[in-house]
Amino acid sequence: MLFNSMQGSDGISTLSDYRVSLLNRSMQVDVRSMLGKSLTITIQTATTPRHLNGLVAGFALVGQEGEVDRYFVYEARVVPWFWLTTQKKEFRIYQDQSVPETIRQVLAPYGYPFEFALGEKYAPRTYCVQYDETDFQFISRLLEAEGIHYYFQHEEDKHILVMSDEVQNHKTVDGYKYVPYFTEDKLSLPQQDYMTHVAVYQDLRSGQYTTSDYNFKAPNVDLKTGQHIKLEHRHNESEVYEWPGNYADDPLGERYARQRMQEQHHVRDTRTLRSTARGVTTGSLFNLMYCPRVEENREYVVLGTRYDLKENNYHSVNVQGLAGSGAEQGRRCLFELTVQCAKLPLRPPRTTRKPRTQGPQTAVVVGPAGKEIWTNEYGQVKVHFHWDRYDKRDENSSCWIRVASSWASGNFGAIQVPRIGDEVIVDFLNGDPDYPIITGRVYNAAMMPPWKLPENATQMGLYSRSTPGGDYHTANIIRFEDKIGQEEVFIRAQKDMNTEIENDASSITGRDYVEFVGRDRVTKTRRSSKEIVDKNMRTDIGGNSTTTINGDFKVVIGMSSGPRDTGKEPKNVFSAFSDHAHDFALMSNESKGNGSYTLNVRGDTWNRAGGNATEVVTGDKAVSSRSMMLSARSALVQDAQDTVTITSGQASIQLTADGTIRISGTHIIINGKRIDLN
């Protein structure tokens, strides 16, 4: 292949694009086989040769050249290897890596040379997502966000991608540290490297930049920051305000603000020059000399180059032996340079737009193997996104993601940590894939609702799961049934249930109330306790019963005691009975009898014993009544160890232990069919 001509351009932080015209005598060149091959154009300079190297991204047979069709013309589109990154689109998550580390990971599989020439340190980004972007778009926006530019250094058989953040990292080309400026009347000097046709351009820019952001880990910290420069033109007081600034602390915000201001102003003061200086390349430094506009004589960095290269026509003899039309005059080797003062910072404009999500999406909660819940102090979780082809569905799948709650306040509110395997709805703050937030949860075929639907569509509530190792039958439940006629509130505690009420509590049951305690029950009342039963009350005790009363004990029964009608029991009665051979005792709190027991019955009292009845009084006993009747079906025995006295008015009968019987009265009558007196 013979070089014919080249037009194209390259520039800092842009992909070079060369259109190279090539000649060949054959029409049979395999066009497809040329794709992807390395192509180098060599330009002779005043010192060492200059090379423009790239890959063939397109190749075409476009025609013939010459009056007698001596050569076939082919055209190659030559691009840098970095162009290959425009052909690969990806979704991928990068965590805890600095921007240079992330870019290194993206570029390494391509196998082409690249290097960093950085003066600043770059902190790791906790979470960075390549979201529906080509590798080129992803790398470009990361570089632009950090104020890093790139260019290419060309060699004979390769070119190197160089990424830099300082102009000081750029170098001059040997033999081209100083380049003269010639006016038009000196342009005919042969083989002379020079600059001409300077064009000076400035534009009006804002003199103030302000940005801010929010960090939920420091919610009360004002992260607003900004930069201001004094410009020597009118209307420089305009402010550019951007939010969010995509930073979480003041130092990083200040650096971004400084870079944003430098970005705005590095292109506001540029020059263009026409040049024949074949050794001055994009990214190189040079000093301009002898420009009539004196202030232009200073050091510059080349921001971009446009090429117009043409070789002599090639001559040959056609197949009939006829000579060609002769050589055309000279080669053409012209360059148009865009430059800026080397003392100004070089920051690439942020032209690569960060992708935005198209609404919420779902993901699956993940965590370490063997865990059922994986969270941190903020109740955040990690997820596997359905588009992520690289994660292992473990605790490293994503960043910690905040979970929206129905109520989130300072140490109060509602909380339920999504569990591993749950499908959640993920949205993104400001549509930014770097800032996911969980806004909801959904069921799926593997995670079905806790009760069968649609049969139980009238039910709603909460159905938890014991962990670890729980199943459907180990759960705490609060369930509401709204089906007409079957309305129900169901509460179940899988183990313990504790209720704490700081003030009053009231419970009203419209009909029956049943309470079952599987083991012991303790009720403690610090003050009084009152129980009112409008009708009957029954207490069944399977074992012993003990009641301890530190003060008095009083039982009041509403009817008078004793049956008024023979053979009939009273309706309202205080009854104490035992069906089996166990004791029933009412006791004062001290065995010595220092306490008291009072039984006050406003109505009747009736005591019945199915077997024997014994009453023991250790002290005196007095019985007082309007009338008294003692009746025994078999025998009545009254026994006293000392004296028995029966008194009625002036009459008395006294029986003493020595056998004496005394009968006293104003009138004694003895009646009997038979009376024996000894």
From TrEMBL:
Compartment(s) of residence: Secreted
A Pfam family recorded for this sequence: Phage_GPD
Gene3D superfamilies: 2.30.110.50, 4.10.220.110, Baseplate protein-like domains, Gp5 N-terminal domain
TM region(s), chain numbering: none
Sequence ranges assigned to domain Gp5/Type VI secretion system Vgr C-terminal trimerisation in this UniProt record: 460-559
This protein's record includes keyword Secreted: yes
Keywords: Secreted
All copies of domain Gp5/Type VI secretion system Vgr protein OB-fold, residue ranges: 379-443
An example Gene Ontology CC term for this record: extracellular region
Entry similarity comment: Belongs to the VgrG protein family.
Annotated protein name in UniProt: Uncharacterized protein
